[in-house]
Task: structure prediction
Amino acid sequence: MQSHERLRSLRFSENGFAFDPATGLTYTLSPTSVHIIAWLLEGCPEEELAHRLVAAYDVSLHTAVRDVDNFLVSLRGLKLL
Amino acid sequence: MSDPVVAVTGLNRGENPQPGYAVVCSLRRRFPRMTIVGMIYDAMESGIFADDGPDWAYTIPFPSAGGRAFLERLDSIRKEQPIEILIPTLDTEVEMLIELEPELAARGVRCFLPTLESFQARAKPVLEEFCAACDCATPRSQPASSLAEAERTAEELGYPLMLKGQYYDARLVHDDKELARAFEGIVQVWGLPVVLQERIQGSEFDVLGVGDGRGGVTALCAVRKMILSSKGKGISSIVLHEPRLTAITSRVINRLKWRGPFELELMQDERDDEFRIIEMNPRFPAWVDFPAALGLNFPAQIIALLTGAPIDPPVEVPAGRFFIRHQVEVIGSVEDLDELMTEGVRRARRSRA
Result:
């Protein structure tokens, strides 16, 4: 299981605002993104994230896979994963 | 023990704010009854007219007039105000005051400044050499004493690049034509040499602190610039806790055995995420009152270090606190200008409890 140390160091508010104390950057997250990050921090493997999205929202697996992939690419771009 | 009488320079808070007014505000937070004397170059320095500005303002000669002229004016001011501590806040003043320190001390006026050797070691023309010596990354940079030399250096470094004055000013230039224009503008104000510096793309960071003269610091406050002015000044910055910034600052201060306030300016290079030092300012920055408002009062530390009083326990400014610069109008009158321009002095028109 990955520790996601960088992601864990972010400060989240309940309404999806995040602050990174190591970089000073702030982010606004969609409700879906908040869920994905919470699942990652719980230890959910990346390949299961899309299935969880399908279970939580009324979306097709195809859309969920695409959205999760895009979000993970963004997180890696920000060096948060 | 009564508070010492403190003089502060650099009181203008306009488009490009000087640090002195912020230093005055920080001193007032810690020493509400302190007598603070503003030393000004111009009757229109805005901080003179602020409600919480200095108690007195006295005009002084520009540093270019030399140390003797400064001492003569200081002596005349001290007949009215028994200044014991002087906090310079402008780059152009620091070297002269370092050289004058023995004469100031003989008059009972103390400053908390670096040695001349330390001051010169971090100067822009030798920054690359200095950073190599303390194992810190920095953009390639080279001084130039003529336009022809600047053009040759620009060819080596490649455009775009930053052209900087030896004390102040930094302009982004994209080609020979812009270089020539910027060269002329900077040299007219700040003289030679200029410094050409490789342009780094990335975010800007500042670290503020006070060196104790033995290689340590009293405390640090690191910020990321969030909004920049057209001159590249931080209009808004946010506190962050990045251990690499602390480590770089510690290496620099330890190497220099820096004594006094400083602001380290760095860029985080987008290419490799490395922090590169672009300047080290030998004074407080204009945002020094921001950490003071949150409990970390660097100007008050200077007073403690000079008087032997205990320094307040260091406070860590929480990551996530930020400032945004807010312009306001302060009010003066022709009577103020009359006093300042004819007599060279103005007393603040207010009564403090």
